[in-house]
From TrEMBL:
The chain crosses the membrane at residues 12-31, 37-58, 115-137, 157-180, 200-227, 233-254, 261-283, 315-334. Belongs to the UlaA family. GO terms for biological process: phosphoenolpyruvate-dependent sugar phosphotransferase system. InterPro entries: Ascorbate-PTS_EIIC, PTS_sugar-sp_permease. The lineage of its organism: Bacteria, Bacillati, Bacillota, Bacilli, Lactobacillales. The gene is ulaA_2. GO terms for cellular component: plasma membrane. The keyword Transmembrane helix applies. This is Ascorbate-specific PTS system EIIC component. It is found in: Cell membrane. The keyword Membrane applies.
Length: 346
C-alpha cells in the first residue's frame, strides 16, 4: 500500500507489521456490523492511509538519524517514536550522545551489540526464571532441561535473532533499496521505502540497550500504578519493550542525547503499557478476553476507529476515514503550493 500524493510518498515494506495493523482494523470494523465487502473496502483504504501517514510523521527524525531522506521507518510503534523524538527535542541535550559514553577498557567488549544484548537478556531471563521456579519451567517449557540452562539458551537465542536481523538490515540497505528504487520510480516516482525498526539500531548501538532498560522500567512503573489503582494489569512484554524501547531511544538520542534517549523510551514504555487498557474492551467483545495489541500505532488505529464506532457506528467510522483522507489531500496541496513558491523564488 502507498500514497502517490506528494507529501505521503511512502511504501510500507514491513509486511508482518502491516498484517497486524490490518488485523486490528478488521477486529474493530467487525464490531460495527459491516458486511465483508464494505469491511474490506473501508479497511483496505484506511490501512493504505496508515501506511503512508505513519512513516511521514517521523520522517524528519529518521532523516536526522540516517543522514539521508532516501529511506523511512515503517513499524507499529511510529507514533511512540515521534513522542520520543519530541521529548528529546524539548527536554534533552543533543550534544551529549549515548554514543559518546566511554566504557572502561576492561568493558570494551560491551560495545559489541551482540555481546551486550546476550548479557542483558541473560540477566532478564535468569531473573524471570528464578521468580517462576524450576518446576514450572522444566515441566511446561524446557522439556526437562535445567531451568538455568534453559534461560541461558533463550538469552543466546534472542541475541542470535537480533544479530540475524541486523545482518538483514545491512543487506537491505546495501542491496534491496537500490532494487526498490528501480521499481518504485515506475509506480510511485520519488517514493521512499518504509523498513522495519532495526534499520536505525546501527546508528546508536548504546541507545538500543538504554532504550530497552528505560522502556521496560516504564512498563514496571505502569504495572505498579495499575496494581495500586485496581485496573487490569498489563504485564510488560520483553519483545515490545526491546524493539520499541530501543527504537524510541535512538530517536530520543538523535534529538536530545542521553537524556532524550532515557526519557523518550521511558515515556514510550508507559504509553504502550496503558494504551492496551483502552483497547481491551474492543477486543473482549469478540471473545479475546485478556488479549490486546501492544505498540502505539495499534492503539491509535484501534481507539480512533473504536471510539468512532461507539459514537455513530458504521457511518461515523466511514466519516472519520473520509476526514483523514481529506486532511491528507489538503496537506499535500499545501505542500505542493509551498514547493512551487520556493522554486519560483529560487
Amino acid at each position: 500500500m502507498n500514497c502517490k500524493l506528494g507529501k505521503f510518498k511512502y511504501i510500507y515494506l514491513t509486511g508482518h507489521a502491516f498484517f497486524y495493523q490490518a488485523c486490528i482494523i478488521a477486529v474493530v470494523l467487525t464490531t460495527t456490523g459491516m458486511n465483508n465487502v464494505l469491511m474490506i473496502a473501508v479497511g483496505g483504504l484506511f490501512l493504505g492511509m496508515c501506511g503512508s501517514v505513519f512513516p511521514a510523521i517521523i520522517q524528519p527524525f529518521t532523516k536526522q538519524i540516517t543522514g539521508t531522506d532516501d529511506v523511512a521507518l515503517a513499524h507499529t510503534g511510529n507514533f511512540g517514536y515521534m513522542i520520543a523524538g519530541y521529548i528529546g527535542k524539548w527536554f534533552g541535550n543533543k550534544n551529549k550522545s549515548t554514543e559518546d559514553i566511554n566504557f572502561p577498557k576492561g568493558l570494551a567488549f560491551l560495545r559489541d551489540s551482540t555481546v551486550s544484548i546476550a548479557l542483558t537478556m541473560m540477566v532478564v531471563y535468569l531473573t524471570v526464571a528464578l521468580f517462576t521456579g524450576s518446576t514450572y519451567i522444566e515441566t511446561k517449557l524446557s522439556a526437562g532441561t535445567n531451568f538455568i540452562v534453559f534461560s541461558l539458551q533463550q538469552a543466546g537465542t534472542f541475541a542470535a535473532g537480533v544479530y540475524i536481523i541486523l545482518a538483514g538490515v545491512r543487506m537491505i540497505l546495501a542491496e534491496i533499496i537500490p532494487a526498490f528504487k528501480g521499481i518504485s520510480e515506475r509506480l510511485v516516482p520519488n517514493s521512499k521505502p518504509g523498513l522495519d525498526c532495526p534499520i536505525v539500531f546501527p546508528y546508536a548501538p548504546n541507545a538500543v540497550l538504554i532504550g530497552f532498560f528505560s522502556s521496560f522500567l516504564g512498563g514496571i512503573v505502569s504495572l505498579i500504578i495499575m496494581a495500586l489503582t485496581g485496573t487490569t494489569i498489563v504485564i510488560p512484554g520483553v519483545v515490545p519493550h526491546f524493539f520499541c524501547g530501543a527504537t524510541s531511544a535512538v530517536y530520543g538520542n538523535a534529538t536530545g542525547g542521553i537524556r532524550g534517549a532515557v526519557l523518550g523510551s521511558f515515556v514510550q514504555g508507559v504509553v504502550i503499557s496503558f494504551m492496551p487498557l483502552f483497547l481491551m474492551p474492543l477486543v473482549s467483545n469478540l471473545g479475546f478476553t485478556g488479549s490486546t495489541f501492544s505498540d502505539t500505532d495499534y492503539g491509535i488505529i484501534g481507539l480512533l476507529l473504536g471510539q468512532s464506532s461507539r459514537m455513530g457506528g458504521q457511518i461515523a467510522v466511514i466519516a472519520v476515514i473520509a476526514v483523514v483522507g481529506i486532511t491528507m489531500f489538503l496537506l499535500t496541496a499545501v505542500s505542493a503550493k509551498n514547493k512551487g513558491k520556493d522554486e519560483e523564488a529560487a
